[in-house]
Design a protein that fits this description.
alpha/beta, Rossmann fold, 4-stranded antiparallel beta sheet, 10 strands, 37% helix
């Protein structure tokens, strides 16, 4: 089942096209990766899907619902959770308080199942942050801040979790832990992974979409993408 799709999606800034005519679809339950060189349009695509950026052309659909003009908070209530390329948290709040903010939306989405406090505890436990529950977000290491953002996303109880370069700045051990977490999450949430770490992408993604100059260059299984001469020409790290 197609969970999210775009039709002719584009974003221009004056005379510059950051994204052009993108037709893109994500299947429910998959881990989909989006890769490409710097400036390819990956983060613009992420911002458009999350609602942080308004398109100048095209449409975005969640299942059969047109969400093109909906703001981020409306999309969150419909099941789209998104992390940021640069960590964006409330430094004075504890981890528990931070995740609880998202869990209140998650509880509303569930319609009377678990309480917000129960959802927050589960998200902290799932990301290995239970022992940091009362630590201020501003006092966390970079790796733990990344995990806290993912915990917030999980607390929304989303159908789609968008992760924009979650491994950026992580140590090798932290990246390995993150990979294990994403693999475990895939049983309950669809993951859209925008990432430069190729070993991580190849290990996790069932399908990969390659972007270049604001357009989709190729899509397919990891082995297909690795063998594509066009992809290797614009993105030698594959």
């Amino acid at each position: 089942m197609t969970l999210l799709r775009t039709a002719g999606l584009g974003r221009r800034y004056g005379g510059v096209a950051a994204l052009s005519d993108v037709d893109f679809a994500v299947t429910a339950g998959e881990i989909r990766a989006v890769i490409g060189p710097n400036g390819a349009g990956k983060t613009t695509l992420s911002g458009l899907l999350a609602g942080r950026i308004r398109p100048t052309a095209g449409r975005i659909f969640l299942a059969d619902r047109d969400i093109t003009r909906l703001p981020p908070w409306r999309r969150a209530r419909l099941g789209i959770a998104s992390g940021f390329q640069v960590s964006s948290l409330f430094p004075g709040l504890s981890c528990r308080q931070t995740v609880l903010l998202a869990a209140r939306t998650g509880a509303r989405r569930q319609g009377g199942g678990e309480s917000a406090a129960e959802i927050a505890r589960a998200a902290l436990d799932r990301t290995g942050l239970t022992h940091r529950a009362e630590t201020r977000a501003g006092a966390l290491s970079h790796g733990h801040r990344r995990l806290l953002e993912i915990a917030m996303g999980l607390a929304l109880r989303p159908s789609l979790l968008i992760l924009d370069e979650p491994a950026q700045g992580l140590t090798e051990a932290e990246t390995a832990s993150l990979c294990a977490l994403i693999r475990e999450m895939a049983g309950s949430v669809t993951v859209l992974l925008i990432e430069h770490n190729m070993p991580m992408v190849m290990a996790l993604a069932g399908r990969i979409t390659v972007m270049d100059q604001g357009r989709i260059l190729a899509s397919g299984a990891p082995e297909t993408i690795r063998a594509d001469a066009r992809v290797r020409a614009v993105y030698p790290g594959v």
